[in-house]
Amino acid sequence: MTDRSQHRLGELMEQSDPPFEEVMSCVFGIENHETRTYLVLRQRPGSTIDELADALERDRSTVTRSLSTLRDRGLVRRDRRLLDGGGYVYQFTAVPVPETKAMLHEALDAWAATVHEVIDEFDGAPP
After folding, report:
1. Where does 22-102 show beta strands of DSSP type E?
2. Which of 5, 19, 41, 59 could form a disulfide with 1 if both were Cys (CB 3.0 to 4.6 A apart)?
3. Could you tell me the CA-to-CA distances from 124 to 112, 113, 117 in Å, in that order?
Protein backbone atom coordinates (compact mmCIF):
# COMPACT_ATOMS: atom_id res chain seq x y z
CA MET A 1 0.00 0.00 0.00
CA THR A 2 1.18 3.53 -0.72
CA ASP A 3 1.44 6.23 1.95
CA ARG A 4 -1.68 7.83 0.49
CA SER A 5 -3.70 4.62 0.62
CA GLN A 6 -2.49 3.95 4.19
CA HIS A 7 -3.70 7.43 5.18
CA ARG A 8 -7.02 6.71 3.50
CA LEU A 9 -7.21 3.37 5.31
CA GLY A 10 -6.98 5.23 8.62
CA GLU A 11 -9.84 7.47 7.57
CA LEU A 12 -11.82 4.46 6.39
CA MET A 13 -11.33 2.67 9.72
CA GLU A 14 -12.89 5.64 11.51
CA GLN A 15 -16.18 5.06 9.68
CA SER A 16 -18.55 2.51 11.17
CA ASP A 17 -20.18 1.70 7.83
CA PRO A 18 -17.98 2.86 4.94
CA PRO A 19 -19.49 2.85 1.45
CA PHE A 20 -18.18 0.24 -0.99
CA GLU A 21 -16.80 2.95 -3.27
CA GLU A 22 -14.57 4.32 -0.50
CA VAL A 23 -13.37 0.85 0.45
CA MET A 24 -12.51 0.13 -3.16
CA SER A 25 -10.68 3.44 -3.65
CA CYS A 26 -8.71 2.96 -0.44
CA VAL A 27 -7.72 -0.68 -0.87
CA PHE A 28 -6.74 -0.37 -4.53
CA GLY A 29 -5.12 3.03 -4.03
CA ILE A 30 -7.21 4.64 -6.74
CA GLU A 31 -8.97 7.97 -6.95
CA ASN A 32 -12.71 8.32 -6.45
CA HIS A 33 -13.21 9.22 -10.13
CA GLU A 34 -11.46 5.97 -11.09
CA THR A 35 -13.79 4.00 -8.84
CA ARG A 36 -16.70 5.83 -10.46
CA THR A 37 -15.33 4.85 -13.90
CA TYR A 38 -15.28 1.21 -12.80
CA LEU A 39 -18.86 1.39 -11.50
CA VAL A 40 -20.17 3.07 -14.66
CA LEU A 41 -18.36 0.49 -16.76
CA ARG A 42 -20.10 -2.25 -14.78
CA GLN A 43 -23.38 -0.85 -16.15
CA ARG A 44 -21.99 -0.38 -19.68
CA PRO A 45 -19.75 -3.34 -20.56
CA GLY A 46 -17.96 -3.07 -23.88
CA SER A 47 -17.87 0.73 -23.83
CA THR A 48 -15.35 2.74 -25.78
CA ILE A 49 -13.42 5.66 -24.33
CA ASP A 50 -15.74 8.12 -26.08
CA GLU A 51 -18.85 6.39 -24.75
CA LEU A 52 -17.43 6.42 -21.22
CA ALA A 53 -16.37 10.05 -21.51
CA ASP A 54 -19.97 10.94 -22.43
CA ALA A 55 -21.45 8.82 -19.62
CA LEU A 56 -19.04 10.22 -17.02
CA GLU A 57 -19.16 13.76 -18.37
CA ARG A 58 -15.36 13.82 -18.39
CA ASP A 59 -12.83 14.55 -21.08
CA ARG A 60 -11.34 11.72 -23.07
CA SER A 61 -7.83 12.05 -21.61
CA THR A 62 -9.10 11.76 -18.03
CA VAL A 63 -11.08 8.64 -18.90
CA THR A 64 -8.06 7.17 -20.70
CA ARG A 65 -5.89 7.69 -17.59
CA SER A 66 -8.60 6.21 -15.34
CA LEU A 67 -8.89 3.14 -17.56
CA SER A 68 -5.13 2.72 -17.60
CA THR A 69 -5.01 2.76 -13.79
CA LEU A 70 -7.94 0.36 -13.56
CA ARG A 71 -6.28 -2.01 -16.03
CA ASP A 72 -3.05 -1.85 -14.01
CA ARG A 73 -5.03 -2.89 -10.91
CA GLY A 74 -6.71 -5.74 -12.79
CA LEU A 75 -10.17 -4.18 -12.55
CA VAL A 76 -10.81 -3.57 -16.24
CA ARG A 77 -10.20 -5.60 -19.37
CA ARG A 78 -9.65 -4.20 -22.85
CA ASP A 79 -10.67 -5.88 -26.09
CA ARG A 80 -9.99 -4.73 -29.63
CA ARG A 81 -12.94 -4.69 -32.02
CA LEU A 82 -12.36 -4.43 -35.75
CA LEU A 83 -14.44 -1.81 -37.52
CA ASP A 84 -16.29 -2.55 -40.75
CA GLY A 85 -14.58 0.27 -42.64
CA GLY A 86 -11.14 -0.75 -41.41
CA GLY A 87 -9.26 0.05 -38.27
CA TYR A 88 -10.28 -0.87 -34.77
CA VAL A 89 -11.59 0.51 -31.52
CA TYR A 90 -10.90 -0.59 -27.96
CA GLN A 91 -13.81 -1.67 -25.81
CA PHE A 92 -13.54 -1.89 -22.04
CA THR A 93 -15.29 -4.16 -19.57
CA ALA A 94 -15.08 -4.10 -15.79
CA VAL A 95 -14.19 -7.39 -14.14
CA PRO A 96 -17.18 -9.03 -12.48
CA VAL A 97 -18.04 -7.84 -8.97
CA PRO A 98 -17.29 -11.24 -7.35
CA GLU A 99 -13.76 -11.09 -8.81
CA THR A 100 -13.32 -7.52 -7.56
CA LYS A 101 -14.55 -8.53 -4.12
CA ALA A 102 -12.07 -11.43 -4.06
CA MET A 103 -9.23 -9.05 -4.94
CA LEU A 104 -10.35 -6.66 -2.18
CA HIS A 105 -10.42 -9.48 0.37
CA GLU A 106 -7.01 -10.72 -0.77
CA ALA A 107 -5.44 -7.25 -0.52
CA LEU A 108 -6.92 -6.63 2.93
CA ASP A 109 -5.91 -10.08 4.16
CA ALA A 110 -2.32 -9.47 3.00
CA TRP A 111 -2.27 -6.09 4.75
CA ALA A 112 -3.73 -7.55 7.93
CA ALA A 113 -1.13 -10.34 7.91
CA THR A 114 1.62 -7.73 7.67
CA VAL A 115 0.15 -5.77 10.58
CA HIS A 116 -0.11 -8.96 12.64
CA GLU A 117 3.59 -9.66 11.93
CA VAL A 118 4.54 -6.16 13.06
CA ILE A 119 2.56 -6.66 16.27
CA ASP A 120 4.04 -10.12 16.90
CA GLU A 121 7.61 -8.91 16.30
CA PHE A 122 7.31 -5.92 18.61
CA ASP A 123 9.47 -6.47 21.69
CA GLY A 124 8.77 -3.22 23.52
CA ALA A 125 12.29 -1.86 23.11
CA PRO A 126 12.59 1.73 21.86
CA PRO A 127 13.61 2.07 18.22
Report:
1. 76-82, 88-94
2. 5
3. 20, 20, 14
CA dist., res. 63 & res. 56, Å (int): 8
- Write out the E strands in 36-102: 76-82, 88-94
Residues paired with residue 76 on neighbouring β-strands, in sequence order: 94
All structural domains of the chain, each given as residue ranges with its CATH number in brackets, are 3-121 (1.10.10.10)
Q: What are residue 93's DSSP bridge partners? A: 77
Give the number of C-alpha atoms closer than 13 A to the C-alpha of residue 2, restricted to the C-beta side.
10
Task: Indicate yes or no: pTM above 0.70.
Answer: yes
* Residue 73 CB neighbour total at 10 angstroms: 19
How many Å apart are CA 85 and CA 68, to the nearest integer? 27
* Buried/exposed 46-61: b ≥16 CB within 10 Å, e otherwise: ebebebbbeebebeee
The count of other CB atoms within 10 Å of the CB of residue 62 is 15
Report pLDDT for 78: 97
